[in-house]
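Deliverable D4.2, example record:
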Amino acid sequence: MLYNSGYRGREQLLFLSNAQTMKKQYLWGVVAIAALVAFWAIQQKDGSIKNIVDNLNLGPLILVSSSPTPSVSTGATPKSSVKVTPKITVSPGTYGQLVDQYVGKRIQFDQYCQANPRSATFKNGTTIMLDNRSGDARIVTVGGVQYSLGGYGYKLITLNSVVLPKTLNLNCGAAVNVGQILLQK
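Output generated by the structure prediction step:
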């Protein structure tokens, strides 16, 4: 009898230990989710419509981007801007038609996030095609501006800068400086 009651006591201790472990795991799960939400909120702190829509990864959309707010500076050089081209078309065309239309104005990113061509020169105001040739979604950065490209997706962007010539670095995911664009008059 004494052995059985002792055994039940161990069962109860083991049950309490498992319940406490489950509570700790649940608490850590909640903390991890809260950290992910906080990280996402920090990434979205500028709140621009373009970045929010790009992060939804809805594919090509008709967007009208606002120009940067002018600011008074003393001796500082003005920033460049890269913005999505507002296009209003009845039929955007197939991928093949866009590839034909943007010959020489297309930058592809392969499955290793490498840019092809690695360097290119364009005139200010040129619309180019960012083309993801990987099945994985990518975040491509052009001159500090991020664009979300779905798997085998693309974006049409217009390159603009107040200061010319301007070198715009290309990043793809964790791969930094995978290419450069020289923007000229």
